[in-house]
UniProtKB/TrEMBL annotation:
Subunit structure: Monomer.
Binding residues annotated for substrate, in chain numbering: 24-26, 39, 62-65, 124, 164
Recorded catalytic activity of this chain's protein: (2R)-3-phosphoglycerate + ATP = (2R)-3-phospho-glyceroyl phosphate + ADP
Protein name: Phosphoglycerate kinase
An example Gene Ontology molecular-function term: phosphoglycerate kinase activity
Protein's organism: Nesterenkonia sedimenti
UniProt xrefs under Gene3D superfamilies: Phosphoglycerate kinase, N-terminal domain
Pathway note: Carbohydrate degradation; glycolysis; pyruvate from D-glyceraldehyde 3-phosphate: step 2/5
Protein family per UniProt: Belongs to the phosphoglycerate kinase family.
Lineage: Bacteria, Bacillati, Actinomycetota, Actinomycetes, Micrococcales
Keyword Protein biosynthesis in annotation: no
Principal location: cytoplasm
EC number assigned by the record: 2.7.2.3
Length: 411
């Protein structure tokens, strides 16, 4: 069965109807300003399709991981502000302290004119959104559904969140007529190209800091990829497992045995595991920290001994990784190679991004931070095959896992 689309919804007629749209607007913020609005821009086409057809739109999204209650640092206010700059439709929002689907929200929805957008506060301010209890999520979804009144509809366009079994991503689809958003459709189409007979050699480049999440992914990607290139914070769990000193670098102590198993698994499947040979070791986690490049088997033999921490791959590794990418026909990249937010530790990430822009192969960038890195480091987005809005979601898709938000749409 294939999911109904937004075009199906438009064909049914939306003028005067209230449509609840779940988007992924989880964007990086600094000092109350959106620093990369990629996910907001990616959400615009569906919102504009609906508003220009006369729908009254409720947009719901999450920001970060608040603990199920109002917390000003996770307010969607700056996101609503950016959205209102990017769209022609008026964007309204409720007071952040009000219950998400309470009386104030109902009153605000009742005031909407055709073509207006109403943005809910961070959907994760209600603990039922992410609850593991089906009954709690279901009750919350029911309240959200009721906001749309008679003849409401639900569109899931939050690709980056479809791997979450959350009320607004999963349960709401069985409370209202449900439709798949265009962004979700596009993302699925592209990722399908990576899973169904990718043009080989197929190389996966993994980095970032969510080490334990990604270690699980590695196991599942080894049988599928020809080469797996490891950078970022993940390197040090491997380096330690291989018996090297790593100083104060990021490490998952309880995963050392697991990663040793990966080396063997890779051999069995003929997948080459490629590690950095040199690392930028810093005196502390700071933009102006003193740093030096050390070979991977001598990380504790520098100026700061076992107090140093690895914040980027070194130049030799960056060159080798770029060469791997150049020799591949399909490349999937998730997770920065270092702490790219600090200029001194951005070189590895820049080198990988640069190589991706130069490849004649099909390149896909997945991950909130990797996509943000590409843009904030000044790369031209059109030089990449595809920049996915999903991090965990795209990885879980590539692993072949079921994505609750997609299943719920009947796709
Ligand atoms: N060696 C390192 N030590 C500590 N942090 C690192 C290191 N290398 C990269 N990082 C950090 O990793 C973070 C991004 O990691 P993350 O795993 O969240 O990637 P991502 O692309 O956003 O993927 P996802 O969307 O799945 O979360 C960046 O903020 C970066 O500073
Ligand atoms: O940033 C992401 O990958 C998505 O918005 C999902 O966020 P989460 O990992 O907090 O569920």
């Amino acid at each position: 069965m294939s999911a109904k689309t937004v075009d199906d919804l438009l064909a049914e007629g939306v003028s005067g109807r209230t449509v609840f749209v779940r988007s992924d607007l989880n964007v990086p913020l600094k000092d109350g300003e959106v620093t990369d609005d990629g996910r907001i821009r990616a959400s615009l086409p569906v919102l504009e399709k609906l508003t220009s057809a006369g729908a009254r739109v409720i947009v719901a999204a999450h920001l970060g991981r608040p603990k199920g209650q109002f917390d000003p640092q996770f307010s969607l206010e700056p996101v609503a502000h950016r959205l209102s700059q990017l769209t022609d439709a008026p964007v309204k929002g409720i007071d952040s302290q009000e219950p998400l689907a309470g009386e104030a929200a109902k009153a605000a929805v009742a005031e909407l004119a055709d073509g207006d957008i109403f943005m809910l506060e961070n959907i994760r301010f209600d603990p039922r959104e992410t609850s593991k209890e089906d009954a709690e999520r279901s009750a919350f979804a029911q309240e959200l559904a009721e906001l749309t009144g008679e003849n409401g509809a639900y569109v899931n366009d939050a690709f980056g969140a479809v791997h979450r079994k959350h009320a607004s991503v999963y349960d709401l689809a069985s409370r209202l007529p449900a439709y798949q958003g265009d962004l979700v459709a596009t993302e699925l189409e592209v990722l399908q190209r990576l899973t169904e007979a990718p043009s080989r050699p197929y190389t996966v480049v993994l980095g970032g800091s969510k080490v334990s999440d990604k270690l699980a992914v590695i196991e599942n990607l080894i049988p599928k990829a020809d080469a797996l290139v490891i950078g970022g914070g993940m390197v040090f769990t491997f380096a330690k497992a291989m018996g090297y000193g790593i100083g104060k670098s990021l490490v998952e102590e309880d995963k050392l045995e697991t990663v040793k198993g990966f080396v063997e698994l890779a051999q069995q499947h003929g997948c080459r595991l490629i590690f950095p040979t040199d690392i930028v070791m810093a005196a502390s986690f700071a933009a102006d920290a003193e740093h030096e490049v050390l070979p991977v088997d001598e990380l504790e033999n520098g100026k700061h001994g076992d107090q140093a921490l690895g914040l980027d791959i070194g130049p030799e590794s960056a060159e080798a990784f770029a060469a791997e990418i150049a020799a591949s026909n399909t490349i999937f990249w998730n997770g920065p190679m270092g702490v790219f937010e600090m200029e001194a530790f951005a070189s590895g990430t820049k080198a990988v991004a640069q190589a991706l822009t130069e490849t004649g192969g099909f390149s896909v960038v997945g991950g909130g931070d990797s996509a943000a890195a590409v843009r904030t480091l000044g790369f031209d987005e059109s030089r990449f095959g595809h920049i996915s809005t999903g991090g965990g979601a795209s990885l879980e898709y590539l692993e072949g896992k079921e994505l609750p938000g997609i299943t719920a749409l009947g796709a």
